[in-house]
Write a structure and sequence with these properties.
Elements: H1 2-30, H2 56-70, H3 78-102, H4 112-130, E1 137-140, E2 145-148, H5 152-171, H6 177-195, H7 199-219, H8 228-245, H9 251-255, H10 257-276, H11 286-292, H12 297-320
Antiparallel strand pairs: 1-2
Helix pairs in contact: 1-2, 1-7, 2-3, 2-7, 2-8, 3-4, 3-8, 4-5, 5-8, 5-10, 6-7, 6-8, 6-12
């Protein structure tokens, strides 16, 4: 199985590196599927307009196809199926949003209420599929106890899926930022799933990481392609699904701490502005605040990588002690 994991990683990495520059990026340029920068966005980001988007299609499709080739029976497991459905389901919502923005030339994209409604419906589907083979126990890190929260687990899962997918989406704003932070955040879950014997899920995550590394090669500054909501919402659904199946839901708050801070910065900014007509941050999400404070884009990204690494390490330690 370890050999298959290495093959899944290598194949996903190689296929992504080959497909992006030779097929997808030229094709997206040809059909003019380029990023549209918001008018209120940073001036330094205006030059990114026209950069191909929807690159997330690659690291959603490639890992799944690779796993299907190497171990097709893994998709018969409910746990794997739930994670894949979350990955593809949220990618589909993101694709619809990207399509409206790029093709319909509507910067607002899919209206927030419809996007949240679709995310809500998918979360319900995931829960009811998974609860048939699982329970409503919530594991408390460090204390190492499980608490049966009953019907409240349903609400908890809904909040986790919707919150995580949107938090990850907010993090996608700088070249290489989200892809790198997500690779770091997925690392502890590779270890968790392997140690718990869920090796098929391990293979899936490893394949995704391989594809993300390939994508990062062309998304690092200056980016030649963006993942769009297709990729960011998919990654949020993926890591939420893995956390649920692995019973590490609360650890996701620590391991995915960068995503949480990004989302909170937006919420705080909006609420504070509505009440006072003033801003706490120069711009939200918070990675833009650091840019406006004078930090270069690459320096902000490296700082976030460092924070993500520390949080992932802390989360891993909390998960095994």
């Amino acid at each position: 199985m370890e050999l298959k994991m290495l093959m899944a990683f290598g194949m996903s990495l190689l296929v992504t590196i080959v497909v992006l520059p030779n097929i997808l990026i030229p094709y997206l340029h040809k059909i003019k599927f380029g990023q549209i920068q918001r008018e209120e966005g940073l001036a330094s980001h205006k030059k990114k307009s026209g950069t191909p988007t929807m690159g997330g299609i690659v690291f959603v499709i490639v890992p799944i196809l690779v796993c299907l080739i190497l171990n097709p029976t893994m998709f018969l497991q409910v746990e794997v199926l739930v994670i894949v459905l979350a990955y593809v389901g949220y990618a589909s919502i993101g694709f619809l949003d990207d399509y409206i923005i790029v093709v319909k030339k509507d910067n607002e994209g899919l209206r927030p209420k419809y996007k949240l409604l679709l995310q809500f419906i998918l979360a319900i589907v995931f829960y009811y599929i998974y609860v048939n083979v699982s329970d409503t126990l919530l594991w408390i890190p460090i204390l190492d106890i499980q608490v049966d929260i009953g019907i409240f687990y349903f609400g908890f899962i809904l909040i986790m899926f919707m919150g995580e997918s949107n938090a990850v989406n907010f993090t996608d704003g700088l070249d290489g930022l989200l892809a790198g932070v997500m690779i770091i955040a997925l690392a502890p879950f590779i270890l968790f799933t392997y140690m718990s014997g869920n090796v098929d899920i391990t293979m899936l995550i490893v394949a995704v990481v391989g594809s993300l590394l390939g994508y990062l090669k062309y998304n690092s500054h200056p980016a030649k392609i963006f993942m769009g909501d297709t990729g960011s919402l998919a990654l949020g659904g993926l890591i939420a699904g893995v956390a649920m199946v692995e019973k590490k839901e609360l650890l996701l708050l620590v391991i995915g701490g960068v995503f949480l801070v990004e989302m909170l910065s937006v919420v705080i900014q909006v609420v504070y502005y509505k009440k006072t007509k003033k801003r706490i941050f120069k711009m939200a999400p918070i990675h833009h605040h650091f840019e406006l404070c004078g930090m270069s884009e690459t320096r902000v990204v490296l700082m976030f990588y460092s924070v993500a690494f520390i949080l992932s390490f802390i989360g891993f330690v909390m998960g095994v002690i």
